[in-house]
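Quick one: structure for this chain?
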Amino acid sequence: MDFSTPPARSTPPQTDTPGTHHKSQASERIHPPRTVRIVFSPRTHTHLHYKSLEKRIHTTDDLTYFISTTAYARIQFLLSYISSAVSAIPTPKSAEGLSPGVSGILAVFDKLDDLADAIPPVAGPRRFGNPAYKTWFSAVESAVGTLITDMLHTADVSADAKIELHGYLMGALGSFQRLDFRTGHELSFLAFFGGCFFLGALRDTSRSSNSAAQSDETGDITGKEILWIFSRYFKVIRKVVGRYNLEPAGSHGVWGLDDHFHLPYIIGAAQLRGVEDKHDTGKEGNNAPDHPGSMRPPTTKKKESDYTKYGMPRPVAVMNRTVVDDQMDVNMYFGAVAFIYEVKKGPFFEHSPVLYDISGVPYWSKVHTGLLKMYNAEVLGKFPVVQHFGFGGVLFPWTPFCGGR
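Got it. Here's what it folds into:
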């Protein structure tokens, strides 16, 4: 199934059996597209200079050029790298055991959370956009600069990088002017995370003892740490979206994947794809035991048809609210679906027909590949979304991509 464009029509299920509304698809092993490994070292890029982010996509010709830029290549690398790193890893339930290099970015999330608690919505009926959001946004902008500076200092990274990182972080929190939030904002967070990663601000130097790690100045970061960073971000943003009733920015309406998010579906499908790959691409009948990387918590199965024989939920399990509640804390795909159940009412096939259609895909590897294609088409390839993306001088520059640089 190609998810790059919305389906023309979706129909409700005709029976009570999940998944029977789709044709079965042949099993095939699909891997994410190859992406050139980005070689980035601030010490070898001394000719570049950090600068305030600029919007560079003003026309369709600019959008075409965007695909050839270093910024675009680094975004593609991050999608591939993150998908590989989180493979078969459940979302952690706490920050216990994470490296000191991640503590700085977690302090930022804690501050966002605390400020949301401290700034209540303004009373009064409004369809979208509570004005208290502007108060929260301004408070965040004043507070997080120091946290970013501290994070860079702890990682022994030039404080000059703050100007670009601060821009990407604020862009990841929604629109101050329009009181909305959607995929262009989470793209900005991907850039914030990527900037921290490329700079080495998230590295754990205690792990960088071998020659391979020393040659890559970013150091290593585990899939568990990546999942905790992104899950904390999405948890805070869902709180802000709900608390201040932010409008879905540029939503496709009912034919969109999700009113606000796309990345948690990619990451969550990558988590489950990894479990699937360990069991011969999800083929049944191999009598494989439950794998330690199973996304399913130790609870009673409500419907055998919602799980594979080795304890992993099938894509169709998003139709079962009980399974979604079981999975939401250990898998980002189901966490995103759980938020939909929280904010939307009515039959799933009516309010989320694209996710409903995806639920009929038999293998997570195909779901993941389709979601990546959809992200390239509907986020990175859509002018209304990427026209707001900012380009700096070092981290995500508006320059032609040359190999691995």
